[in-house]
């Protein structure tokens, strides 16, 4: 972890992300880069004033966190395209975002800037919705045997090295009565056993850090299993391996990942393979 890019609009919501990014930078001796984008539809004089005031505000925010050496980038343009260009130019390893002000109709049609950034980014994205009070202590992660799932586990272990890990694998079993009578329980046991065998082989091949607990197999749908584990673990970080290609098309992350991003009850790490 060499360079962490955090996006800020100087709001309280984006300040949460800056605090978390500053914490990670200290822990990993990384470089902190903070960027902000000014709307290019504004009059030129207003743009110049906003750029100057934003740079001053970001400098003050970094100084308050003890990061006088942070690189500050303020540019004009469309937020998603501009941030992706900055991330590429500075060769960032991770993008850290706060939540954004909700605009119900706009968000329904176009998605929030945060959601569009997660869609567009090939970098790991860390979403920080709440005030930061401590380092991570409880990590929850689902495992589906994919490269993205493995990548999410490894990066979560890197940024939350002292946390307790709880991992699970959901087996989507048929609804009761699907196989008829008593055979339901037999089929569920068979599906669960098959998943456990797959998990054992996958886990042994991956040689993941010992700090990461071996997943428990849960014979429920992914949303049901996650909901159950969420209430049991009360995580402060959820790690997700996202599937699909990056881009601006809705659905490229998968419906479950989309739901978690919008739920935002704790920090969420989204990693692509």
Topology:
Blueprint lengths: L2 E5 L4 H17 L2 E8 L5 H21 L6 E6 L2 H12 L3 E5 L5 H7 L2 H8 L4 E4 L9 E5 L4 H13 L4 E7 L12 H24 L9 E3 L3 H12 L3 E6 L12 H9 L3 E6 L1
Main attributes of the structure:
10-stranded mixed sheet, 20% strand, elongated, 2 domains, single chain, Rossmann fold, ATP binding, alpha/beta, 273 residues, nucleotide-binding
Describe this structure in words.
This protein has helices spanning 12-28, 44-64, 79-90, 104-110, 113-120, 147-159, 183-206, 222-233, 255-263; strands spanning 3-7, 31-38, 71-76, 94-98, 125-128, 138-142, 164-170, 216-218, 237-242, 267-272. The chain is built from nine helices and ten strands. The chain folds into two domains: 3-128, HUPs (Rossmann fold); 138-272, Rossmann fold (3-Layer(aba) Sandwich), CATH 3.40.50. The longest helix has 24 residues, at 183-206. The protein is an alpha/beta fold and 273 residues long. InterPro entries: Rossmann-like_a/b/a_fold, Universal_stress_UspA, UspA. One of its GO terms (molecular function) is ATP binding. It holds the Pfam family Usp. Keywords: ATP-binding, Nucleotide-binding.
* CATH secondary-structure class of the largest domain: Alpha Beta
- Overall domain count: 2
- Estimate the global geometry from the Cα principal axes: elongated
The second-level CATH architecture of the largest domain is: 3-Layer(aba) Sandwich
* Element-level helix/strand string: EHEHEHEHHEEHEHEHEHE
- Let me know the number of strands: 10
Family: Belongs to the universal stress protein A family.
Protein name: Nucleotide-binding universal stress protein, UspA family
Domain UspA: 1-129, 136-272
Keywords: ATP-binding, Nucleotide-binding
């Amino acid at each position: 972890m060499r360079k962490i890019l955090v996006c800020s609009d100087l709001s309280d919501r984006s300040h949460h992300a800056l605090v978390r990014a500053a914490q990670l930078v200290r822990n990993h001796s990384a470089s902190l880069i903070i960027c902000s984008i000014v709307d290019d539809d504004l009059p030129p004089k207003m743009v110049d004033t906003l750029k100057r005031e934003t740079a001053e505000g970001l400098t003050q925010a970094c100084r308050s966190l003890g990061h006088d050496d942070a690189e500050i980038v303020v540019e004009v343009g469309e937020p998603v395209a501009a941030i992706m260009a900055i991330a590429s130019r500075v060769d960032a390893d991770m993008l850290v975002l706060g939540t954004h002000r909700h605009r119900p109709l706009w968000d329904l049609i176009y998605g929030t800037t945060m959601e569009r950034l997660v869609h567009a980014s090939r970098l790991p994205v860390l979403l920080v919705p709440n005030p930061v009070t401590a380092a991570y202590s409880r990590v929850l992660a689902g495992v589906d045997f994919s490269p993205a799932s493995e990548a999410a586990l490894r990066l979560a272990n890197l940024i939350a090295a002292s946390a307790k890990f709880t991992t699970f694998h959901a087996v989507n079993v048929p609804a009761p009565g699907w196989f008829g009578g008593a055979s339901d329980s037999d089929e569920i046991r068979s599906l669960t056993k098959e998943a456990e065998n797959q998990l054992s082989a996958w886990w042994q091949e991956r040689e993941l850090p010992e700090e990461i607990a071996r997943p428990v197999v849960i014979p429920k749908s992914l949303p049901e299993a996650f909901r159950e584990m969420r209430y049991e673990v009360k995580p402060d970080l959820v790690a997700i391996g996202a599937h699909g290609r990056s881009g601006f098309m809705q659905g490229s992350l998968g419906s479950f990942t989309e739901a978690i991003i919008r739920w935002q009850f704790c920090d969420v790490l989204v990693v692509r393979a």
